[in-house]
Fold these 3 entries.
Entry 1:
Amino acid sequence: MPGLTDRRTSAMMVIVRRRSPWMLLPAIALVAASCGAEEGGEGTPTSSPPPRAQIQAIVASVDHYVGAPQRVAVGLVTNENELVSFGSVDFAFAYIGTAEEPSEPQPGPSATAEFVATYGMEDGGDGPAITLPSEGRGVYEARDVVFDRPGFWQVMVTADIDGVGTQQALATLAVGEDPLIPAPGDPALETENLTLDSEGVPEAAIDSRFVTDGEIPDPELHGWTIARAIDEGRPALVVFATPVYCVSQFCGPVTEMVQDLAKRYEDRAVFIHIEIWEDYETQTVNQAALDWLQQPSGEVTEPWLYLIGADGTILDRWSTLWSEAEVAAALEELPPMEA
């Protein structure tokens, strides 16, 4: 792939699906004990918080790198496997070195992170609250975070939780020198992804929902290839997701979000869904997903959303979960396309 061969090893054909943060709680090792507010000292942590007040932070975003504004998303859960949802929390980042040269935490950027709910779920409150997954499933997202050096970083999350008080949790994320997969500013790959016109391919390879629905429910998302959009000078919003087989349960909602956006902004871009699996039973991945999402390690993460400009340059990208309003605003900034 022109310009990206130093980032990826296309010969690797192994996929490792990213597991849901909520499902991985028993296996999470990089989580610090969270703290409660000490009586008589507002916001002062204590080593013996009420059991229900203990929270853990799990980094949900991936492929962080140096020098460019980007989004960092963190999920918050309690020790009773409930979620922390709604409102906003504070992120404070600190650099802790590399595997070869660890260091004491060195303060870095800080940011306010807003709650991003799973598409279709109502925002149920003004501030962080403990919820069940059915009440408020999502992540806290900070925007425009810039890391100034590669290595490992910690993020300290501070949340003022309704009925609990001020709590903190710590998580670790890796930051690379360069992005591992296509990123804003890169030329988009001229991919011949599968469409409804593709011959000799199973329908489930075009959209995994064919397995459960018996039809492809969103034909508007399967009429264009990325290559055709670039060739015709049309912006494209491209979602890489497997609605049926996604472990995180975010892929179906985000694909539905893109379908909704396609109806509202059909004059601003073409809309494309790329299914991850060519054949789930044999664990064969669609080549288009490999071309875009495979990291040098062979790992493929999903879901991802890419906005490609009319000149074929990647304008933005989102991982894991994203705000419909934020994506809609990016589409509104595009000029209307000619018919």
Entry 2:
Amino acid sequence: MHSKKILMPVVLAALGAASVAQALDVGSSTTVGGLAYLDFSDIQQKQNGLDYPVPPPAATAPVTGSGVGFDVKRAYLIVDHKFDSVWAANITTDAQYDTNSKVGEIFIKKFYLQATLSDALVLHAGSYDNPWIPFAEAQYGYRYVEKLTLDRLGYGNTTDWGVSASGQFAHNLVNYAIAVINGNGYKNPSRSKYVDEEMRVGINPVNWLTIGLGYYNGHLGQVTQSNADYARNTASRLDLLLAVHWKGLRVGGEYFEAKNFKLGSATTGALGADIVATNAVVVNGVVTNPGTAPVSDEAAGYSGWASYNFTPQWAVFGRYDTTKPSKHVDTGLQDTFYNLGVAFKPIPPIDLALVYKNERVTDGVVSISGGDAGSAYTIGGINAKTDGSYEEIGLYAQFRY
């Protein structure tokens, strides 16, 4: 009697385990994996040479102060499914911690249906990679250490909701991508009156050289039915890239010009915030109240990087960026960033790096995406003549599974 009472739960548990195992057997047409970016580092911020936070009555703006901590900046869960030789689908979730709401957040970063009609024509519908930033990241090779300029300063998105076409010709001598997207990025799939367009052409005249040209045009999802008749600017961006990948050496550079993606205020130096321009409230170049045409602004900058793998496991790397975020409104504002590091790959799915980062902002404040797990931080002060600095040293890692 007692043995039967004991045996029955064991049998039920075994059957339950078997059903779970069967549910997890996704088959050869479906793969489940992930990607995570982590770091443990020490951050030191200053305003006008003083440690942050600056004691009152001095103005303080940064939301990220000095300190030591461990971050999980990104944690992706990736599911790919292949229906047949043409049709496939993907869902990728993105998790992060929001320091403002003090809660963890999970987003859908990618969710698309794919049709591979040929090497020259692959179609995507849903949230998918935008044409430029992922292309440039592939040339850079150290995304887990730092985002590239457009992504970290807010002049573009990695993915967005829409439809796209991409492909390559002549064994990847020429590749391209064209996307019609909402313009708000993958975190905001809301509908607007107009869609945006982004496109890219890549040329590989030899297998170790990549040349890229990109263009963006639209309203960043800001024009709705309610403000469609108001005066507005159009956001546009021109991208250029040159990259060499020869044996263990990577050398490359990126240049961009972005019009009306963000506005600088001559009184606050703030980027991306609402400003008053001839009695019209302006957000990213779009008037949200009736008034005269919004102020037009332009940003420009370049980034250069180099890395060398001495062995398959060991490498050194460095990068230098400089950007003028506001060429017409807050003309003195400038951001300069560089990093240096040593990378180690113990096994193919894991990358480790010891990194030093340094950033300087003059005459204002700049918002940076990705300084810590809170997704954004600021460098500088709340008035146009405040300088800010950011230094960080730490261990960075990424792993795939």
Entry 3:
Amino acid sequence: MSYKRLSMELKSKPIKLIFTKLIREDDFGDEQEFRERLSDDPGMAKEFQGLERIWRESGNTGLFAQIDTEADWELVRSRIDMPILHKHHTVPTYKYFLRIAAMVVLTAGLSTGLYKTITFFHQNGNESAVKIMAGNSLKEIRLPDGSKVSLNAGSRLVYSSSFGRQLREVKLEGEALFEVLPDAVHPFRVYTGESVVEVTGTQFSIRQEDGSVKVAVISGTVLLSNKGDVPRKIRISANQSGYLLSGNELRLENGIETNELSWKTGHLTFDETPIDSALVDIARHFRKELLIETDISEEITAEFQNQPLGEILNEITQVAGLKFDTSGTALIVRK
């Protein structure tokens, strides 16, 4: 039986009967007997209730159709050091719960797999994906739940046509500013590269660049997670920045860079800033690759509001006597 067909059957069966079917057991004649067994062991009953809740919640992941059964079972077996059984026989109760736990581990692992392949808009074959691309300028978006997204030029946002009904999940490529409306029941998740950002309601920006992801929180709190068999999370509060570096390392820093949102505000400001550092912000603001081919020791104090690149570089030339080539996709700096 395919897992897609099995997942359809699971929706209409009590959890005990589901587990019984999956592990080929008939220790318990009916649901009442199963519950009576649990009532004799309060500790086991509490554990089962927790697993039962996780099972129900994990049912929303819609990943059964994507399971590689052989590879995934080998993963579970290696984690719990339990031999694969090929014959039908009675399994002791403690192993029954051990297998349930293994299934939960597997489900959690598959959910984590969303870091690598975002599938939230393919969970239902009848759903379609809404894809929004910002061309050469900023694009403002209002999501179905009322949340706002400012999408930087050249960036892309994807979400399911059923967004907001049960899940609030989007996939981002590039850079965006999010203003998420509060909803504690339906967390808002942003999948970017190999990271997941989760919030219930806050304002924050995300930038994907050179294999890394940066999250700057303006208000509220967000969770930034990395990928892996055991994903790690860091909590980022207002006026903090979180990073997922290319080596899968998570880092937290206090403060937000002065020109972090210049692409949104149009405002660049420098206060006794080394010019080579200022040029990094300027190149990012105008979506240029920066190539510095000379030593620069001067500093600059200036503010620019929605000024073209040429005007900004002319002022820097007066301070440091630099020459710039902006004819291509790069900003080349010489003397």
